[in-house]
Structure formats: structure tokens, C-alpha cells
Amino acid sequence: MNYPSGIKKSTSGKKTTTIDSNLSHKNRGMTLEAELNDSNEYYREINQAFIYKKPTPIKIVKVDYPSRDKATIKEAYFTVPSTTDYNGLYKGKYIDFEAKETKSKTSFTLNNIHPHQINHLKNINEHGGIAFLIVRFTTLNETYLLFAKDFLDYIEDTNKKSIPIDYFREKAHLIKDGYRPRVDYLKIINDLLEVK
Amino acid sequence: MNYPSGIKKSTSGKKTTTIDSNLSHKNRGMTLEAELNDSNEYYREINQAFIYKKPTPIKIVKVDYPSRDKATIKEAYFTVPSTTDYNGLYKGKYIDFEAKETKSKTSFTLNNIHPHQINHLKNINEHGGIAFLIVRFTTLNETYLLFAKDFLDYIEDTNKKSIPIDYFREKAHLIKDGYRPRVDYLKIINDLLEVK
């Protein structure tokens, strides 16, 4: 499978890398991210949903002002996000999710998700939002939508370190690859809303 | 009135400024921003609403990797936001707003709001979200919540350059100063939801 919209960071051997987009500091999840951004753009184009990736949170330390209206950030650091990466509006509903890729064929490691992101998903779920994870097992080429409720049920009251692929196959919803949108996760949300 | 949580950027005479928070590149709106962040934190503490300011959108150009897990952004630029600054969830409703301060005593200049932010507010309003502006007239010490519908009604079909204070006094909702939350804008949203 090709990922035409995937963005790759070249880091090999160099200490300074020039990149041309709002990249996360880890390679993890970049391709899924690009496909989700493209899908969200498509949903906006057809006036279906207004869901955006939040900008990468950054702590700015030093800014140069070479001229009155121009500012160049000269020193900044990536910071841990307080919330999930994506949120927005679909059919009057608040949508909120985190997206991750894993190369594992057997499980999704939970240290991919920060504790306050877990807490955030819990809050959103309890207050009437639609919260979920999108997890892509890249080696298997399987992408799942796992609702926050099922995610939280699994990790609750245990010291689980990962979620096995079988749990995804049983409880999560497989998202089929498409052309546009590439990752049609709203189809699953739509089915959920129609059942309600 | 004092703004204990206000953050000020020191720019006088220096070309390089060191700042310790996620600041916008313009001084406009900082104090209101700090008060809103504080209010949103309070709403989260009492488990009432989960509304966050989005990180400042930045285009990253150069990143140094002094060690494997450490990344320093060495060159980046502030970019124009595609959406409003704040969004989140309250009582199952999608909340979305932009916040601005003005020193003017007479009007709010529309070039404070980017065209795609206006478009975004329109989309959110049409798709069942609760969209609005919070505008503080700092000199008058008056802070208003103006629903997107009333905002869009005013600017529609004209080439208006600003919204006079009288329009706010007539159509918008005055937000009283408080201790915690400092800017209790959800009170107005709550009144709206109870009427519905």
C-alpha cells in the first residue's frame, strides 16, 4: 500500500533536519496523520463535518523580531499534549479522538497514550461527546476505531501495558481504506448515531 | 481592575525576547486569554466543561536533535489559524469560540477576525454547534459574548469594517467579572440551553 500523502522526516545521520510541515517530534503516526488530515479536509469540502487536528503544542522560549510584523521563533520545545489531537463537530455532536500507528502485529502499547489523554477521553465520554481512538496496525494494514468506552473498559482496574490485536478485532470497528476520504471513520460514527 | 493571571510580553528595545508561555505573536488579547484559560481550568476542576485553547499554530522549519529523545525547534514561524482558538464540550454540546480584546471605546474592528475564522464560525453554527465571540472592550471594562448568529447577521451582505459597541450592548450578553471563574461565559450558554 502506498501512502501518497504521508510525510517522512529525514533524520539519518544529521543533527539538524529541515521539515516543511507541522510535524510531531516522533515518527510514529505520521502517515495515518496525513491521511486523517486529508479525510478531514474532504469532510469539510462536502460540508459534512468540521474536525481538525490541533496544532502541535510547543513551549516557546525565544522569539526574534527582525521587523515590526515579523516574528521568528528561535528556540522552542515540543510539550506533552493535555488533550487528544483531533476534535470537532459532526451532526451536532462533539467528536474527539487520538490517532496512533503501531508496527506491532500483536498489540497496541498503552504508553502511546499519555495518562491525561486517557483522562480526557474519559471526561469527553462522560459528558456526552463521542470519544475514540483510531489505531493503525501498519504491518497488518488494519485500522480500527475503538470507542473510548471500550478502551476504558479494557484498561480499567488493571495494570495493563497493552491492548492485544484480538481485542481490537472483537470490540473495535475496522475502517476500510478508501480513496476520498482515505480513512472514512465518520461512517462508523454515523452508524452509531443512526442506531441511537 | 487587576489581572493577576495576565501574561505580558516584554519587547521594548530588544530584538530577542524570552517568554515563558505559549504566547500569540501579538499583544492583543493576552489578558483575556489568561483569564479564559483560568476559567476553563476551573470548569474542568469542577467537572463542568472541557474546553481548551488550541496551541498556537506554528510552521516548523528547523529542528535540532542533540540527543535521541530531545528535540529543539530552532526555526519556526507563527501561522494564521484555520479555526477559532477555543473549543470543547459542555453538557453534550460542541462549544467553539474566538476571544479578542480591543482598546477602542466605540467599536470592534473586524480585521481582528480572519476570513476563514468567520467561515468556521458559520459552519459550526449551521451544524449544531454553539459558536460565539468573546470580545472585551478593555478601556470600558466590558466583556461580551456575541453569538455567531448575531455576529454573522451584522456582517452579512455589507462591507462592514467594524461592529459598534452599541450593537454589542443591544445584541450581545455582558459577562460579569468574577473570582472563579473570572470570565463565567458558560452561565450565558447555560441560560441559552435552558430556554431551548
Explained architecture:
The structure is a homodimer of 196-residue chains. By secondary structure, chain A is an alpha+beta fold. Chain A has a single domain, classed as 3-Layer(aba) Sandwich (Trna Endonuclease, Chain: A, domain 1), CATH 3.40.1350.10. Chain A is 27% helix and 33% strand. Chain A has helices at residues 30-45, 115-126, 148-155, 165-171, 186-195, and strands at 16-18, 49-53, 58-67, 70-78, 86-90, 93-102, 107-109, 130-137, 142-147, 162-164, 173-174. In chain A, the strands form three sheets. Chain A has a six-stranded mixed beta sheet with strand order 2-5-6-8-9-11, with helices on both faces. The longest helix of chain A is centred in the first third of the chain and has 16 residues, at 30-45. The two termini of chain A are 35 Å apart. Residues 1-30 of chain A have low confidence and may be disordered. Chains A and B meet through strand 1, strand 2, strand 3, strand 4 and strand 5 of A and strand 1, strand 2, strand 3, strand 4 and strand 5 of B.
